[in-house]
Specification:
Elements (H helix, E strand, L loop, with lengths): L4 E2 L2 E2 L11 H14 L8 H8 L3 H12 L8 H19 L4 H21 L3 H15 L15 H14 L4 H9 L2 H6 L1 H21 L1
């Protein structure tokens, strides 16, 4: 992949030495897939904990995991918490496995990381997402089905969710991350719109359950 990063660094391209056997090539390909969307944003133990919780419990667990301590006074923290809570609840509706939860939540986090740290444009974020989904979803060759994280239906659903939850509001997130504290105070009305949007997503998920 060309652009995507994790908080720990870039995702390197696989290097297959000359003269390898088909078996060793498959092993190398599997190891490369293991690096995709790593390190995990949430551990398997944390995800398992949240799966046993109701919506309020999920929110409290994520608040603890993210070390958010100023939710009552910091609208930015409130917006980010709802971003992750909404994503987790949506994934629960998809009945993902723990590994799928892990990769999906890491994907949510990396998209924000790329925006916040690399100042990645909307166009580049969409391109990066396409590259990630191509590597985590079914490949044309199907040489190593075990390395697929999402099937075609799930991959398309993930992309559709990210369109409405992040990409449609990309400029608002840019404002959230790039603005000074004074500008954020002035632009509280804009940030409130993001917050209210995620509340609507949560309400919709509750009604569907």
């Amino acid at each position: 992949m060309s652009v995507g990063t994790t908080p720990g660094g870039t995702t390197p391209a696989a290097t297959i030495p000359a003269g390898t056997t088909p078996e060793s090539e498959r092993d190398a390909e599997f190891q490369e897939h293991e690096k995709i969307l790593s390190p995990d944003f949430l551990s398997a133990a944390q995800i398992t904990e949240m799966l046993a919780e109701d919506i309020d419990g999920v929110q409290q667990k994520l608040k603890k995991f993210l070390n958010f301590k100023n939710l009552n006074t910091c609208l930015k923290e409130a917006i980010l918490l709802d971003y992750y809570v909404s994503g987790f609840l949506w994934a629960r509706g998809m009945e993902f496995s723990v590994i799928q939860y892990s990769k999906f939540m890491t994907l949510l986090d990396m998209l924000l990381h790329n925006l916040r740290t690399l100042h990645m444009s909307l166009e580049d974020s969409i391109k990066w997402l396409g590259e990630v989904m191509a590597e985590t979803g079914p490949s044309h060759s199907q040489k190593n089905e075990e390395s697929n994280v999402f099937n075609i239906k799930q991959a398309n659903a993930v992309i559709d969710y990210l369109k409405i939850s992040l990409f449609q509001h990309y400029k608002l997130y840019e404002f959230l991350f790039y603005s000074t504290r004074e500008e954020i105070v002035i632009g509280t009305e804009i940030l409130q719109k993001i917050y209210q949007y995620f509340l609507l997503i949560v309400v919709k998920i509750i009604n569907e359950e």
